[in-house]
Amino acid sequence: MKLSAEISMYPFNEAYIPPIQGFIDWLNQQEGLLVSTKPTCTIVTGDYERVMQVLGEGMRYSVETWGKAVFVTKFLPGFAALPEANA
Question: Which InterPro entries match (predicted)?
Answer without folding.
Answer: MTH1187/YkoF-like
